[in-house]
Design goal:
Elements (H helix, E strand, L loop, with lengths): L1 H10 L1 H15 L5 H32 L6 H15 L5 H135 L3 H7 L13 H4 L1 H28 L5 H34 L9 H11 L6 H13 L16 H14 L7 E2 L13 E3 L10 E6 L2 E3 L2 E4 L1 E5 L25
Helix pairs in contact: 1-3, 2-3, 8-9, 8-12, 9-10, 9-11, 9-12, 11-12
């Protein structure tokens, strides 16, 4: 059987039959009747050859199976088909029907086999997943048992630790109470120490003033007893007020003091200014108004410090001129005295003057229930720096600025929210530091288009004081 089937497959009779059918179908319309009949006969002959070979294979296959093998198949499939082939004239139509039914049956059997194979494959996959799940469940149960053992061990340890912790908590509470009592005692001592330091500083200031007066009285006494100024000078030189130092000390330390003061001015811009800005934002929601307040405070601080310096310098000159007879000039002696006694500067008076000027400034507004004293720390530091800057040679000062002026790259930086295409200054954030009209430290300004048309500010509530002497 296998040899016959192999010969049938090797002859490729089925492929040749299919090719002849396709060729006949393509040429059927253009062929004549005789040509179509001849083609049909050729196909019938080829089909009969194939059927003959198939019957031979069928016969050999049935013999190989024994006497009764394949009987049911022959009865149910072969014999009915043979009967339809030799029946009446309608046998062709019945053959086509049986053929289609056979093909449907074969197709359904094929689908059933595929479905069975798919179900078998899915069943195998489910079994594998079930096995894997059981293995994972076993691992989880083992982990759970280990966790339970660890939990029991932890509970035992926690109970022991809890007992020890309760004792430690009691000890810590007692220690905390002792520490709080010690801290309160230390704070009381610190307050008393601060009071002592303030009193010592006041006493030092009074001693300095008394020493200055003593020096003046001694110089007057020496001059009144000496027969002539020339003889007095030959006996002993006029004593220096307060602490003695070599002549021209202020000039020799000018460069170092200048560097320190410029650095301090930058620190105030970076630290104290931002602190004051944060504090003001709690009372004033308008950021522009906050920046205007800080700028005017800086300018007024320099103005108040310069005024205080001039007055202080006049008093020192009047005092020292009575007994001055040293080798250096009176101006150098006065400058040295001021540099050595900057602690005599009444900075609080300048702070009050600045706040008074700000209260009546029409460009800034502030809630009536709040005073500008909230930024007194910034004003005090600016006044001290400004006063010390007046002792330099030449002195340092802040630049003059007005709203709507032409923006200068050499004097100011633009703030981050500025319009970088605008040429006019809307308002100033921080003044520039100048030395003889030369910029030492740049200030900061906000530039906007239409700066001259900006909205007017409502004047702040008037408080006691006189109008500011500084023009903005």
């Amino acid at each position: 059987m296998a040899d016959g089937l192999r010969r049938l497959v090797g002859a490729e009779s089925g492929r040749v039959l299919q090719e002849k059918l396709e060729s006949w179908y393509r040429d059927y319309e253009i062929n004549s009747c005789d040509q179509n009949l001849n083609r049909c006969c050729e196909i019938i002959e080829l089909n009969s050859e194939i059927q003959g070979q198939l019957f031979t294979i069928l016969n050999e296959t049935s013999r190989e199976g024994g006497h009764y093998a394949g009987v049911e198949t022959i009865k149910t499939r072969l014999l009915p088909w043979l009967g339809t082939c030799f029946s009446c004239a309608t046998s062709g139509r019945l053959f086509e029907t049986n053929l289609s039914l056979t093909q449907d049956s074969i197709e359904k059997e094929r689908q059933l086999r595929e479905l069975a194979s798919d179900q078998t494959f899915q069943l195998q996959e489910l079994q594998e997943e079930l096995t894997s799940t059981r293995l994972q469940l076993s691992h989880v149960q083992q982990d759970l048992a280990k966790t339970q053992l660890a939990l029991e061990d932890t509970k035992t340890k926690s109970a022991t630790t809890l007992l020890a912790a309760e004792d430690e908590i009691v000890q810590l509470k007692a220690a905390l109470k002792t520490s709080c009592a010690q801290e309160k005692d230390a704070l009381r001592k610190l307050d008393r120490l601060n009071d002592y330091e303030q009193q010592i500083q006041i006493l030092r200031d009074e001693i300095s003033i008394l020493d200055a007066q003593k020096s003046v009285l001694q110089s007057r006494f020496v001059r009144s007893r000496s027969p002539s100024p020339r003889h007095s000078e030959s006996k002993s030189p006029s004593p220096l007020p307060l602490r003695s130092c070599s002549p021209g000390r202020a000039r020799r330390t000018n460069a170092s003091r200048r560097a320190c003061l410029v650095a301090r001015f930058g620190d105030i811009y970076a630290q104290e200014r931002l602190d004051a800005e944060t504090l003001l934002r709690t009372y004033v929601s308008d950021m522009e108004m906050v920046q205007r307040i800080i700028y005017i405070a800086a300018v007024e601080s320099f103005h108040a410090a310069k005024t205080a310096y001039r007055q202080f310098k006049i008093r020192v000159r009047e005092t020292l001129s009575l007994g001055h007879s040293g080798p250096e000039s009176l101006e150098d002696t006065v400058l040295d005295y001021i540099v050595r006694h900057e602690d005599l500067y009444d900075v609080q008076a300048s702070v009050n003057e600045v706040i008074r000027s700000m209260n009546i400034n029409p460009k800034i507004s502030f809630p009536p229930e709040i005073d500008f004293i909230v930024i007194s720390t910034l004003i005090r530091e600016l006044c001290r720096v400004a006063f010390s800057m007046q002792t330099l040679i030449p002195p340092l000062d802040v630049a003059f600025g007005t709203d709507g002026e032409l923006f200068s790259e050499t004097k100011y930086h633009r703030s981050f929210d500025s319009d970088f295409t605008a040429a006019l200054v809307a308002y100033h954030v921080w003044p520039a530091l100048m030395e003889n009209d030369v910029v030492i430290v740049k200030g900061e300004a906000v530039t906007k288009r239409g700066a001259l048309l900006s909205r007017s500010r409502s004047p702040s509530p008037l408080r006691s004081g006189s109008p500011s002497k500084w023009a903005y």
